């Protein structure tokens, strides 16, 4: 009996998770003003008329740099709670953090060896 109650609770949360956004977006559609004009539907770029094509090709290196930054930036966020609570955590957590930093260093060395960090204009 108690086991099936858990499924009912999960089903309620799934239904609410689907129903609430649908209801909110539908109510918003009916309440918002809608007066489209040609000027409102035109492309806007810093107050100027757009020049050229809308899709520009970027070097894939840009995405690799951005991905590397995000990976290492997010991973270093995990160091802050450890540094704040270092006195209470002890030697075991120090060793775990050294392993974590070593894995980050291995990833950085791997990226360096693959020349991901080298920027070419091509």
Please outline what is shown here.
The chain is mostly helical and 122 residues long.
Keywords:
66% helix, 122 residues, 5 helices, mainly alpha
Molecular structure report:
- The chain is mostly helical and 122 residues long.
- The protein is built from five helices and no strands.
- 66% of the residues lie in helices and 0% in strands.
- The longest helix is centred in the N-terminal third of the chain and has 30 residues, at 2-31.
- The model has no long low-confidence stretch (mean pLDDT 83).
Would you tell me the structural class of the helices and strands?
A: mainly alpha
Q: What spatial form do the alpha-carbon principal axes imply? A: flat
pLDDT averaged over residues: 83
In angstroms, what is the radius of gyration?
Answer: 26 Å
Into which percentage range does the β-strand content fall?
Answer: under 5%
Write the layout of secondary structure elements.
Elements: H1 2-31, H2 60-77, H3 79-84, H4 86-89, H5 91-113
